[in-house]
Amino acid sequence: MPKITLNISTSPHLVKGLSTDTIMKNVVYALLPAAAFGVYAFGWSALLVIITTTGGAVLTEHLMCKWSNKPSTIFDYSAVITGLLLGMTLPPVFPLWMAFLGSVIAIALGKFIFGGLGYNVFNPALVGRAFLQAAFPVAITTWMKAFTSERFFSISTSIFAWPFMTPKVDAVSGATPLSAFKFDQVSTPAYDMAMGICSGSIGETSTVFLILGGIYLVWRKMMNWRIPVSIILTVFAFSAVFYMIDGKAYPSPFFTIFSGGLMLGAIFMATDMVASPITSAGVWLYGAIIGLLIVVIRLWGGLP
Question: pTM for this structure?
């Protein structure tokens, strides 16, 4: 009589034949257009920041695996995504040693300490970003204008600052749309923000490429479209209410959804398969809470 093995496990029980590295590679493909546009908009400095965070994340993942006597997991591309996402959330003139440190924290504290891929409770890239925000608030809010004529003929000296030394910024600074509105009541046209013709973090300025990347992942059935849609609709609805109350004190809903890192976060971070809900009701509620928090922080928080 043949032996029958009964495997007892939690849902889902019907699994599509996609490996982790296949999914992760497709996420990288979806991110590359927006990352490439960031390099085009800000030049070599932006490219070096992305290379540093990505390389730092991959190196940290490899060393942590070796240190714990486990096979290296760098070929599942999850560390590449973490480094790429972290770099895209940083200013183009961010010092490289800080960027590298952020990638180490993202992998070691945000991912590996919980047991690696599949066990992390937070998006690792956002753990690194939160650390850098707390540790280096000045550097992470120092910007440069997009599409300067010298962006491919020179590199900002601030990115080469020595560790624990104050960076000397020689780039042309430019306020982001969020900070310009919050502190100077200057509104940036929605078209400029959608097309990336503004200052900001490396990967957040081109809404068009971010949305196209999200559509690609939805088409490949590698992203739950309900999460970004829930976030964007919630932000739009609450922003519209306040804009109708006082259009001078509060930004328009179109300004709100196109400015800052909302699209990058909603499409590529909130949809983290490990850290996001799996039920339909949970997903809609999850997105709505995130959207509400975005509006509250933007309207009444101390930072842009």
Answer: 0.89
